[in-house]
Every structure is written in structure tokens, then in C-alpha cells.
TrEMBL record:
It comes from the Bacteria. Keywords: Oxidoreductase. One of its GO terms (molecular function) is arsenate reductase (glutaredoxin) activity. The keyword Oxidoreductase applies. It holds the Pfam family ArsC. The lineage of its organism: Bacteria, Bacillati, Actinomycetota, Actinomycetes, Kitasatosporales. This is Arsenate reductase. SUPFAM superfamilies: Thioredoxin-like. It is an enzyme of class 1 (oxidoreductase).
Amino acid sequence: MEIWINPACSKCRSALTLLDAEGADYTVRRYLDDVPTEDEIRAVLDRLGLEPWDITRTQEAAAKELGLADRAAWPRDASGRDRWIGALAEHPKLIQRPIITADDGTAVVARTEEAVRDALSR
């Protein structure tokens, strides 16, 4: 299992604490330093069963600068998918965190204890 974290994020630190308490075997990826490629983002989205706009932190400064709230400029459908993925790769702070890729090939956005436990059970 791998967990994408930002060490400054309290939700990430809580997820790590729970993983450690449960004795989980995991790898940490500091995704702001080790930025995921577009292909890695696509793979995680497939594992999550989500679209890029579903895991975008739209309140970040970069999201506002890019105008992500403008649905005409940033359509939330197949026509805009690659552009959204490109934005996440170029601006990794926009990626929701933490994301845990589970051993069964799935993934979860692990912002709650329940989500972390869900990933551990897979």
C-alpha cells in the first residue's frame, strides 16, 4: 500500500498515525516533492473510480488562478478530463490528500478514520 501525503496536512498525519497503530505495511509518497505524472494520476483515478475534478482542491490559490470554477473553461466531462489531469500534474497542491492505494488494486481518499480503515481492510 502507498499513501500520498503532504506532511503539513493534519489529515495526512492522522492517517499515518492510524496506519502505524494498525501495524500496516505502507510506503509514503510526498507527492509535492515526488510529483505524480499524468499517467500515474490517471491510474489512481481509475483505482478510485473518480474523475480529476472529484479530487481537486478547488479552494487552493492555484485553482483560483487557473479559474477552475469556470465550468465553461474547465468542463467536467470527457472533453475536459485530460486538461484537468494536466493541471493536477502541473500543480500537485491541487490533489486531494491523503490518497491510499490499497493492496487489492483500489484506492481511497483517506480524509477520515473510516476511509483509512476501509483501505486497511482491502
